[in-house]
Amino acid sequence: MSEPRCVMICQHTSCLKNGSAEVLAAFKAREMAEVEVKPSLCLGQCSSGPTVRILPDEIWYCRVQPSDVPEIVEQHLQEGKPVQAKLNPRIHLRVEMFLSP
């Protein structure tokens, strides 16, 4: 049996200043079976918050706004496809980052 998913939303100082409390509320407002949504202490990505980390997938989203939550829920949590546009580039490196222009 697979590990249940957990959506952690940073609620530390800089993420809070950028609206992470509203992001947390938006995730909690969604009904998701077998997905735990909880606030987190600092996730160490202060310059790119609000930060959302999804376990056990180890997917990190950056600059998440409440308007991004439906797409993350539907595309990632329901369909299993991470939302590329919101991936934290410091954690999820892309090949294009290493190609010469």
Automatic annotation (TrEMBL):
InterPro entries: Thioredoxin-like_sf (IPR036249). This is Ferredoxin. PANTHER family: NADH-QUINONE OXIDOREDUCTASE SUBUNIT F (PTHR43578:SF3). Signal peptide: none annotated. It comes from Floridaenema evergladense BLCC-F167. Coiled coil: none annotated. Keywords: Iron, Iron-sulfur, Metal-binding.
